[in-house]
Amino acid sequence: MKIKEVSQQKLGSLLMAPTFLLILFTAVIPIIYVLYLSTQDIRGIMNRGFVGLDNYVTIIETGRLQAALGATLYFAIGVIVFQMVMGMIIALALNVDFRGKNMVRTLILIPWAIPTALVGVMWSRFLAATDGYFNATLRLLGLIEGEVNWFLERSLAIGTVVLVDSWKFTPITVMVFIAGLQAIPRDLYEAALVDGANRWQQFWRVTLPIMKPVILVALIMRTIFVFHAFDLIFILTGGGPGDSTRVLSYYTYQETFQFLRHGRGAAVAFILFVLTAAVTLMYVKALREKD
Amino acid sequence: MGAQPLTGWLKVVHRLIVVAVVLAVLVPFYWLGIMSVTPQRYIAGRAVPTMVPREPSMIAYQQILGLREVESPTGRSAAIMYRRSLINSIVVASTSTFLALIFGTAAAYALARLKFPGKSASYVLILGSRLLAQVTLAVPMFMIFQRMGILDTYLPLIIMNTSFCMAWVTLIMNNYFDMIDAEMEDAARVDGCTRTGAFLRVLLPMAIPGIISVMLISFLFVWGEFLYALLFTSTAAARTMPVVVSMFLGQFAIEYRLLAAGLVVGVLPPVLLALLFQRFIVSGLTQGGIKG
After folding, report:
1. For labelling alongside B232, which of A49, A285, B7, B208 has CA 20 to 30 A away?
2. What is the structure's pLDDT at B292?
3. How far apart are CA A163 and CA A182, in angstroms?
4. B217 by DSSP, 3-state: which?
């Protein structure tokens, strides 16, 4: 028995080793390194040495961090509210029997499967003020007049990015919700029906309470990935107009790779890490409560 | 929802929602299709770009795939860069997916069936690593890769993508192995099978659906990965397709139909995979979404 246990330990460690080492190299060490970098005054290729918390102070004093946090918050709220509500509506609609149900369920996978950057390029062309197909179609339908520049004004720009993001990512919420809806036992609805509950009441009293853990997990997962959103912002707005769509991840990119202020960039990156970690802890806690 | 079928106005609302969803997905592809076969003059600068095919041709597809010359020098080098980027994307995506599958499945087996020191710590580390923002890692990794002198090669892309997908593979395959009863392997081993034999002949065949779904999801992820590909490459040598297509935007010398053809060719592999293997992708995603 003893020999068996030792060999099991050896085999386990051996099988885990590549994964463990790779994660050490690409996740653990970089986080420690980024914390170190955030205390250095690095500009261009010059490192002027240790400056303590100066980088953090600078990004706060210039107001850029607060602006980025604000943009992230607006963007996150827009994305999450829209995708949760639309996701639930579409999931409910695709959970009813109708002809072509499976086809539509397959169809909605398509936007999710397309690379986000290509979604951005596509929509950037469609949304062009003059010769874009989106405007042209709306004009033909009589919904708008003249040229509408979807990225001209601050809140409009955020809303537009939220919509494009939702085109790509609502499908994932739909799929997770459909899986949750399918797991609800039918007799619960029959019981509610016997009690005289109408559809509306059934939704609020049966569907929603049972779906709560699924919704919660989808919510937290979406929150984490909204913090990471970069591709669409890079392609559609470049952080503008002004700093209205300069979310934390884009701000990190700008400081580090555009302005070449690696120290400040590292400080923003570390703050992004702390925020992600906080949401992750919420996630783990929510999962524990679910079990 | 509910047990009874839809009636009256609810049915109407339901059909409207379904139609709206179908249109929202398909109309952009219609636009894209038209754009890819129509000469520039019917689209560029027009208040209403043509909504129906005008003088349609497959010229742009032939150009982007190298079967026909592009007249403008910018367009020509764009098409050459695009073809190179497709090869880069295929190499990076298949290598990363392959490595992630091997490493991830091994780790998942260890987590599900073996006792070893540091087991729960490894699990937490893997779960946590998947939730880090790419850009957070890009800042330090850029400097590390720079020092290693491997920027603008496939290596940084393969390393980062393998790492991310491997974590995903480990978590989903671990779920899968947990759901499969270990008794069947024990029985096989009592019958004289080695551990490897029991894994290959008993466990692996039962886990095939899971392997297909993580393979697809990994491939789709790497195929579309943008940030690392943007930051860790600087020439056509290692640039992947999404980066090259994003560079086409706003270049007036590149015809819209060339851009659109590049988009269509770039989205075709993922769209086909999604349509053909819908079941596997949905099961992998919902598991990942629900169980983490």
Report:
1. A49
2. 36
3. 28
4. helix
Give backbone dihedrals phi and psi of B41, rounded to 5 degrees, phi first: -65, -20
User: CA-to-CA distance for A159 and A143, rounded, in angstroms?
Assistant: 18
Where do the domains of chain A lie? 29-290
Instruction: Considering only the beta carbons, identify the residue of A13, A202, A228 that sits closest to B134.
Output: A228
Range in A242-256, B36-50, B103-117 with the lowest mean pLDDT: B36-50
The tokens for B174 are: 């671990």
* Residues 107-136 in A contacting B (C-alpha not used; CB under 8 Å): 107-118, 120-126, 130-133, 136
- B121 at A interface, C-beta within 8 A: no
- Identity at A220, one-letter amino acid code: I
Q: Tell me the pLDDT tens digit for each residue of A106-135.
A: 999 999 999 999 999 999 999 998 888 999
What type of residue sits at position B92? V
Q: What kind of fold does domain A29-290 have according to CATH? A: MetI-like fold (1.10.3720)
A46 in helix, strand or coil? strand
- Does the beta carbon of A86 lie under 8 angstroms from any beta carbon of chain B? no
CA torsion sign for A263, B140, B164, A280 is negative
Question: What digits encode the pLDDT tens for the residues B227-269?
Answer: 999 999 999 999 999 999 999 987 877 889 999 999 999 999 9
For chain B, which domains are there?
Answer: 8-57 (no CATH), 71-291 (1.10.3720.10)
Which CB contacts under 8 angstroms, 24+ apart, belong to A38-43? Answer: A38/A263, A38/A266, A38/A267, A38/A269, A38/A270, A39/A263, A40/A262, A40/A263, A40/A266, A41/A263, A42/A261, A42/A262, A42/A263, A42/A266, A43/A260, A43/A261, A43/A262, A43/A263
Q: At what angle do helices A116-126 and B241-248 cross, to 10 degrees?
A: 10
Please tell me if residue A262 touches chain B, with a CB cutoff of 8 Å: yes
The alpha-carbon gap from B68 to the nearest alpha carbon of chain A, in Å, equals 24
